[in-house]
From TrEMBL:
Annotated Gene3D superfamilies: Acyl-CoA thioester hydrolase/BAAT N-terminal domain, alpha/beta hydrolase
SUPFAM superfamilies the UniProt entry points to: alpha/beta-Hydrolases
Identification of the protein by name: Acyl-CoA thioesterase 16
Gene encoding the protein: LOC118241643
Active site: S260, D349, H384
Signal peptide region: 1-24
Organism of provenance: Electrophorus electricus (Electric eel)
Keywords on record: Signal
Entry's Gene Ontology molecular function annotations: fatty acyl-CoA hydrolase activity
Amino acid sequence: LALIRTLKTSRFSLLRLLSTVVRACPLLSIKPMRGLVDEKLQIVVRNLRPKQDVTLHSVHQSEDKDFWEDIITFLTFLYDACVHAVAKDASLSGTYVGVEAMGLMWSLRPVPGSRAGLRLRKKDVLSPLVFHISVHDGHVSQGFTQLTPLESLVIERWYMAPGVQRLDIRERGVQGTLFIPPGPGPFPGVLDMWGGGGGLVEYRAALLVSHGFASMALEYLTPGELKKLKADVNYFETAYQILQNHGMVQRDRLALCGLSFGGAVALSMAAYSKIIKPQCCVCISGSHIPLIKKSLDETFEDVMKSKIRIENNQVIWRDVALPITTDPTLKVDVGQITCPVLLVVAGDDQNWPTVESAEDIQQIMEKAGNHHLLQVHIYPGAGHLIEPPYSPHHRATNFRVQGKGKALMLWGGQAKPHADAQEDSWGKILTFLQEHLYHATS
């Protein structure tokens, strides 16, 4: 009996000790641990002491082997559960301040001592973005590699959902990547075009397909060289036909989507092509200038070279097309567009006069009588590079400028309003595409 009483007492003491230890150890919870990049995270830290300072640290190594990080510090007040939810509690310091549910993603920045002008972009969409997120006691701002965290987790953020097919396109002179959603199909399609940086950029198309659209990322420019346009209007028409004729694509449910220079291409094709007849068109940080009919206008290149400004060693391109020309032959006649158009405009765009272009586009379409087809969303404080949500803000990055080699290109914007613009515009883009590709009548 004495032995039994001793065992019972010991067991009770051990359980009480274990319970105390568990309560004393901070617990980090992140949901989802593996999800799409546009999914919101639920980040919660539990079992904190009253008035305990804790720092959340997130670090990511890019495919270029550069390290990016976020640092945010919380102070735990006298809450009963001593819990911190990132979506509800304010950061007191770090890479952002205040309540930001996704601040640990969009406030990413290169670690101190990194190369200048870095831009975080996903090249291989078949692999995830991997983040190491840890909790540290106290207010910490540096030296994380030498510290032992209270707890840490690894999460994955994907552009491409499970079950998506990725197909290389090398057909009829066209180069690109076609993404097909999982399921029986056929699906509405989107021809996706990036800007003057050139090359094949897949991650937006991969995210679009993850939302049910057969998306084709099109390569049409040699990286960094606007003058090396791979082909004339026939190239874009052929790419459109390749997408349209695929067995898993609804041929009468296609959209054009372009960023920056790609937006000018999309508007031009929607206005002039006899072959491309999209159901809708998305133009992100784009313009109706320059005009593309057969090839790039050499006189425009001359103007571009003379109007580029350099301030604080940063290249500012927005003056190239200012003032907006009144010559209708030097811009896309958007009055001829017969499909719905969505313009996503950055209010602090330092790369292109997108605000002034949007105003001119509205005037042209009002005069032509097709203004009812136009939606314009202007985001004050946002910069030129409006990307999928929760991507970090890049105010200036390295870029190859025609005739000048590599330079630091100023895109504009501030981190918080830019992050808000990316989140809001992505939702509007998906809604716009769903409305006109899935729900429109034939």
